[in-house]
Design brief:
CATH superfamily: P-loop containing nucleotide triphosphate hydrolases
Shape: globular
Strand order of the largest sheet: 6-7-8-3-9-10
Radius of gyration: 17 Å
CATH architecture: 3-Layer(aba) Sandwich
Number of helices: 7
Structural class: alpha/beta
Number of strands: 10
Number of domains: 1
């Protein structure tokens, strides 16, 4: 589904260059559950952002189903992010002024042809899937860390994405809650969703089918 060829990413601050990624070659197949491991600052999250079309590579090519994203317009890239990708962030990124139901509905607001009634029905369905039906009207400040991450997962999957990109989805959680979050991700994977997950936890990584190790911006 995703092919990276000779991907490099260089951040420039004044006259200082930081090479975040160096000649990364990687293929992710449909239906895989892949984890990316490595120490802090090794390029894991940068790689995930590039794969999720949230950031551009300095050089190299990225293909989705054989189509080079370099040739896509901004509209096409935004459409791909909204229709095909789901994002789960370590810090949840929930809007504090919206309740759980409204937070989960957000990605569907940008989809043409989805009525308010359908948005509500789909949001309630995925909220039930992550076990939070009883919290649908609560606000983020009223939720535990584990509940907030469940809401973030519901928001990521409400649009039925083909690929989920998860950046340390268990990083801020206790071990028991982390196990529960992984169970949800495994269920989604069994249902056919491709998952790319960044983690620093070897126990979490060992639960995935393939582990990719990074060090100093390189696959090792």
């Amino acid at each position: 589904m995703i092919t990276l060829t000779n991907i490099n990413k260089v951040f420039q601050t004044n006259e200082i260059e930081t090479h975040a990624l160096s000649n990364v070659n990687l293929t992710i197949n449909k239906g895989e559950f892949v984890s990316i491991m490595g120490p802090s600052g090794c390029g894991k999250s940068t790689l995930l952002n590039i794969m999720g079309l949230l950031d551009d590579a300095t050089s190299g090519t990225i293909e989705f189903d054989g189509v080079n994203v370099e040739g896509m317009s901004d509209f096409e890239l935004a459409h791909c992010r909204n229709q095909r990708l789901g994002f789960i962030f370590q810090s949840f990124h929930l809007l504090p002024s919206l309740n759980v139901l409204d937070n989960v509905e957000l990605p569907l607001l940008y989809r043409k042809g989805v009525s308010k009634k359908e948005r509500r029905a789909r949001a309630l369905e995925v909220i039930k899937k992550v076990g939070l039906s009883h919290r649908a009207k609560h606000f983020p400040a009223q939720l535990s860390g584990g509940q907030s991450q469940r809401v973030a997962i519901a928001r990521a999957i409400v649009g039925n994405p083909e690929i989920i990109l998860a950046d340390e989805p268990t990083g801020n959680l206790d071990s028991k809650t982390g196990v529960e979050i992984m169970e949800i991700l495994h269920t989604l994977n069994r249902e056919g969703t491709t998952i790319m997950m960044v983690t620093h936890d070897s126990n979490i990584a060992q639960q995935t089918a393939r582990v990719i190790h990074f060090l100093d911006g390189k696959m090792v």
